[in-house]
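Hello,

Our lab assistant flagged a job as stuck in the queue for most of the afternoon. It eventually completed. Since we weren't sure the result was trustworthy after the delay, we are filing this so someone can double-check. Below is the sequence as submitted and the structure that was eventually returned. Let us know if re-running is recommended.
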Amino acid sequence: MKITGSVALVTGAGRGIGRHFARQLLERGAAKVYAAVRDPRTADVPGAEVLRVDVTDPGTIAAAARAAGDVTFLVNNAGVSTGHDLVGGDPERVRLEMETNFFGPLAMIRAFAPVLAANGGGAVLNVLSALSWVSYPGSGAYAASKAAAWSLTNGARLELAGQGTQVTGLLMASTDTDMMAGYDVPKNDPADVVRAALDGVEAGRAEVVADDGTARIKAALSADPAVLYPGVL
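-- returned structure --
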């Protein structure tokens, strides 16, 4: 997958990592970038074409697939974090995270798979999280939804291989976006994360691990769970 000359669609392009994706894709020579946002007033990337897309609304997804029939690169970035636990949290907020972070990307892939196939295969990039592999109090719903999205990424990669569509997962720890604004922790620069992701897509990588902390979590998955949850197990 080459960025130069591609036609990309980025969900959640109105802020944070999504905005960085839209900007860097244009800087790297994408022929067109669709900035897909729930509210078109939030899209402010010069040169991008704005589409209204709510990944929890099948109607807007279907309309986007009809309007953007030239897409060769789908970036599933839109997401939500409600800060709710699985057992004690509001079940409606838990459901919202799953609808947005799992069913949203799934719906986008299902809608755009025929578009990608018609345009030569192309690529899908799913923006995941280190919390696809680990959880902590207050992140149960988010972690579960991102774990499901990681599995979705692996499954879609297998299902779309026959049509020549590359599927890449991007995993990262805390990154300096609006979603993490209230947390006083070390954070990745989102521009660096996006740069690594696009480099990985162009290199044909199935997975991009954007930082050392996420790499350590991945390495610990084969160990006893007590390694990831010291003091709890």
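-- support follow-up --
The delay was a queue issue, not a problem with the job. The result is valid. The longest strand covers residues 32-37. The chain has a mean pLDDT of 94.
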